[in-house]
Amino acid sequence: MAKIGAIIDGKYEILKQIGMGGMSTVYLAMDQHLNKQWAVKEIRLRADDRESRVIIQSLIAEANLMKKLDHPALPRIVDIIDSRDTIYVIMDYIEGEPLSRILEREGPQPEEDVLEWARQLCDVLSYLHTRKPPVIYRDMKPGNIMIRPDGNIRLIDFGIAREYKEGKTSDTVALGTKGYAAPEQFGGQGQTDARTDIYSLGVTLYQALTGQTPSEPPYEFYPIRYWDPSLSGGLEKIIAKCVKPNPQDRYQTCAQLYYALNHYEEEDDVHKAAQRRKLRAFTMAAAGFALFLIMGFSGLFLESWANTQNYDSIYQRAEKETEASEKEALLLQCAQLKPDSVQPYEALIDLYKSDLSFQVDEEMEIKTTLYRNLEALQSSEGYAGLAFELGKLYWYYYEYGSGDTNFVTRMKGAVQWFEDALEYGGEDFENAEMAQVYRDIGRFNEDITMEIEEASDAGKYAPYFQSLQQLTAQMEADPDEAEIVMLEVYRLDVDALETYARKFESDGITRQQMEELLASARAGVQQLETTTDKTDALKADVTARLDEAAAAIERAFTRSRVPESERYVTMQYQGN
């Protein structure tokens, strides 16, 4: 085990031990170069046996998976150090407390808290499951959920996560935690998939609400209201569905589960009884309408009935609706009536952009319907255009995280849609060139931090600069472009110049090229008249950084070079 005060790899000073598991010990460490705290996972390799091989393989898999991911609820892996019989994994230090410790100390948690954690866990699992290929976590349990002081969650320990293999019938190695692992994780019952994580999440929620697990007496899932009659009957049914032994009987996606959690009161017996009473009343009213039909009012009744069933009439109602939540509900209904139509999704995108903010709950609403109809949409003529607009919705409007975290998260959320636009649009797709530009910029920002760590970033900066030039030129050529789009593009330009001016110079970008890009951003920002508090703040942020970007260009072309270590600190400070 590492000693307190020891220096790992010449820069990570061990401060204290903060955790221990069967496979590793975790320490808090200080990066002496960056003056930043990291978590250091120490894995001591034993003799060359099967367990050690699994440890090594899971470590490599974890590192390869984590470096591809960017989500506010996931820690980043920034370094891996192989030191003879020990491997050190350097990752984000997460302030907070494991849910398992909270449950040990306090027992069952309030229903409203558990529901909020469940929604956040659904969101991060949905993010993992919608990667290409999907990432299956496979070890959901209270011990792997960190509750931060602000109440938000972080999901830790990806040691047994895996990428889903299309067409594979079973997993190579059975891994998981007894009591939380789904039946298919053991005994060769099939390949784990998204439904495996839904099972483990259900067990975790069950324990958080009741304090019980099926690995303890009575060794089975009693309804949650057996332990606490005050709990919701709707939530009871949701959890019972999550932990069905047969994956086919569970929720099939986390988007479906998220929707159920947002409407759990509708599953409550009391609510359903009220609905049945309404149904009986409706049946009586319908019988009355039948009588009116006989009496000559058939036209009015049929018109009313058609207005509730016909796609065109519902869409027209949505177009006229001024209340956002009602408009959203009508458009989602249209998407269900015509699974292959891109029209309601395009209208939803416009709706979500109208307040300059694409929220997480809005994302889950559109994704729930979109993924249900994805196959039909992908075969439709307009899918490439829809994917392109979805990419721009994430790129410019997505609100998850803050500051630089949100900046990168937006790009990563967008990249998959730009890739779909290119894949399904073909050579004739009118926005193919711009989709490629967006995709390339997003991929650069996804990969560059790890490539800097691995010293494999040489030659990556000139193509990135050229993509920025293309994006800026395209944006400035559109006289109707939204002000938030213009400001976000200029912020991206200024950030890149401020952070990577020396790298651009090393890759052959001239001083004139950099100064022209900066001059374009300066002129554009100064001429732009903002109309909202959000764009006011964004304009002020970009304006405040213009001079620093100019200074960065100046430094890049002076003989007095800043040491490489200082440049690295600057890049880390900027969050890239």
Automatic annotation (TrEMBL):
PANTHER family assigned: MITOGEN-ACTIVATED PROTEIN KINASE KINASE KINASE 20-RELATED, SERINE_THREONINE-PROTEIN KINASE YBDM-RELATED
One Gene Ontology molecular-function label: protein serine/threonine kinase activity
Keyword terms: ATP-binding, Kinase, Membrane, Nucleotide-binding, Serine/threonine-protein kinase, Transferase, Transmembrane, Transmembrane helix
InterPro entries: Kinase-like_dom_sf, Prot_kinase_dom, Protein_kinase_ATP_BS, Ser/Thr_kinase_AS
Residues the entry annotates as binding ATP: 41
All residue ranges annotated as the Protein kinase domain in the record: 12-262
Top-level lineage group: Bacteria
The species this protein was found in: Candidatus Allocopromorpha excrementipullorum
The UniProt record lists the keyword ATP-binding: yes
UniProt protein name: Serine/threonine protein kinase
Transmembrane feature ranges: 281-302
Pfam families in the cross-refs: Pkinase
